[in-house]
Write a structure and sequence with these properties.
homodimer; about 220 residues; alpha/beta; Rossmann fold; eight-stranded mixed sheet; two-stranded antiparallel sheet; globular
């Protein structure tokens, strides 16, 4: 099994990292400092396959890297980790370019939406890596178990490299996603990132965050 | 049954108008000129309950008005029709603010997306009317028969006026939509209009335009 790095120590990184440990992967959680309290608590809770370090440590360790950082910080995190540490690797980008500057609910960062996307900007920053945008359209508990939506929803993948998308799909299947649509190259991440506003409005209208989208066809 | 106006003579206006005639409504199709060839052909094909006229004629006739014009033309059409002709009426806005200036697939018009929407701008232009955004997230044949998606998909409604939304929902039910989510006020149209990019990318990836979105919860 490939070694996996999880960038980010928030609820999303914690949930993804824990699920991967439970699936038998070795996982290193990366953060700004080597002694991040949340990362160390996660390591203590998750046994011998769990470790932590700086973003650079994690990026160097991982053969597959999950981007679980906040969308407005992601590009800086990749720079801090060292661009060369991602060369030839699969980046599973689950972040969204949310803009909280106009209050709640957030909109999308204008320069990273509509005619651009966070997924594309990460791919431009890491030209030797293979970015796959996926999982960004549900809450983190549904990400790691599609059945928590109560049905058999659809997950999308976007990316320029077919092998990297296959690698991502293998992990998606272990997260109980069975209906997976390959949208095409990384520019199609515009479409999935633009699902965030309807996700937020549906959550606000129904009071239930354990839902997902299904393409009925 | 209330009289209905359909603004626009394209494929969407034609399909919506014909379905409403088949349901027993009196329908007037509006266009820039009183003698629009496509409108007259539609009248000839649809019997005594079908009529045509200018945008102003149609707006004055209709108690419910469907906006089936192209999104980049919609605001001008409402101005041409006379703002006062919409006072107190329900506007069912099914248009999308598509921007073809960057090539295919279209993006959204920046000033009408993310922190704004076409639905909101129509409501601002027609302060005495009740705008309901709905149906804009599927192709026009699925709009008038949800079952053409092959399942039981979700339709959203957005609008400031509860009675107008009920009126829209009554028509949606006649179009075979059974799973309807009321997202809230007209600002929630931002979310449904931002579904267009994923609609376009899914269509391009699957080659099938007869699909719809289902909220699995």
């Amino acid at each position: 099994m490939k070694k996996i790095a999880v960038l980010g120590t928030g609820m999303v990184g914690n949930t993804i990292g824990t699920k991967l440990i439970n699936l038998g992967y070795e996982v290193k959680m990366g953060s700004r400092t080597a002694n991040n309290e949340k990362a160390l608590a996660w390591v203590n809770a998750n046994g011998a396959n769990a470790s932590a370090g700086t973003f650079t440590d994690a990026a160097a360790f991982g053969e597959i890297i999950f981007n679980c950082t906040k969308g407005d910080a992601s590009l800086n995190v990749f720079k801090m980790a060292g661009i060369e540490n991602f060369n030839g690797k699969t980046i599973i980008d689950i972040a969204n370019p949310l803009d909280f500057s106009h209050g709640m609910p957030p909109s999308l960062i204008p320069s990273l939406s509509n005619t651009n996307s966070l997924g594309e900007e990460i791919q431009k920053l890491l030209p030797e890596a293979n970015v796959v945008k996926t999982l960004n359209i549900v809450n983190c508990e549904v990400m790691v178990d599609a059945k928590k939506s109560g049905g058999d929803p659809t997950m999308f993948v976007s990316g320029n490299n077919a092998e990297a998308k296959e690698e991502a799909k293998e992990i998606l299947k272990q997260f109980n996603w069975t209906d997976i649509i390959d949208l095409g190259d990384i520019t199609t991440a515009r479409g999935t990132e633009m699902l965030l506003p309807i996700w937020l409005r549906t959550w606000m209208a129904t009071g239930n965050g354990y839902f997902a989208f299904k393409i009925v066809q």
